[in-house]
Design brief:
alpha+beta, 32% helix, 18% strand, globular, plasmid
Length: 196
């Protein structure tokens, strides 16, 4: 009888320990998910706050480039653009919000974001969205930031968009990879930033 009671007590203790471990794992995964969402929201807020800026930033005071990257900066002489600067803008926004990971892999080319992390097909707010404009000899040649998702629609903010190139927002009817969003751009995929 005593042996049976010990077994029951031991089984109850193991069950309680298993339940505790499971709830701890769930709480931990909830914390990780909770941390990811605020990073994306902060990135979106920073990007939207730059709408209307040119290559030298708001009020022409500064240059977009992510510190800790291989980017060289968007602002050229006399307030002109130093080069195509969409990647500089996304790198700067990520850097301003404490993005970690392989930031040193980013350079002035949109395609460098595929070296930062793997591309995927389900966007999240704060992700980099990559486009292929079918430029001969070039892979992904434009990048922007996902700032909102509503159903299948997606809103992005990017630098060096439009004529003349500025920070601007665009809303596309579909976020699906392969979607032709305008006459020259097709969505290639998304890259998610990671917190430091």
């Amino acid at each position: 009888m005593e042996s049976a009671m010990r077994k029951l007590t031991s089984l109850a203790a193991k069950g309680a320990a298993t339940a505790l471990l499971a709830s701890t794992a769930l709480a931990a995964s909830g914390v990780a998910h909770a941390q990811a969402a605020p990073l994306g929201a902060k990135i979106a807020t920073t990007a939207k706050g730059q709408i209307g800026a040119g290559p030298c930033g708001l009020n022409g005071k500064g240059s977009y480039w992510g510190r800790g990257t291989s980017q060289t900066g968007s602002c050229g002489p006399n307030g002109t653009e130093a080069h195509a600067w969409c990647a500089d803008f996304v790198g700067w926004v990520w850097w301003k919000n404490g993005v970690g990971g392989n930031m040193k892999k980013l350079n002035n080319l949109a395609s460098s974001f595929t070296k930062y992390g793997p591309m995927h097909s389900t966007p999240k707010v704060g992700d980099a969205i990559l486009y292929n404009q079918h430029t001969p000899g070039v892979g992904d040649d434009h990048v922007a930031i996902v700032v909102a998702i509503s159903g299948s629609k997606i809103t992005v903010v990017g630098g060096n968009q439009g004529t003349p190139g500025s920070v601007s927002a665009r809303t596309w009817k579909s976020y699906k990879v392969g979607t032709q969003v305008n006459s020259v751009q097709r969505i290639s995929g998304y890259v998610t930033p990671v917190a430091r």
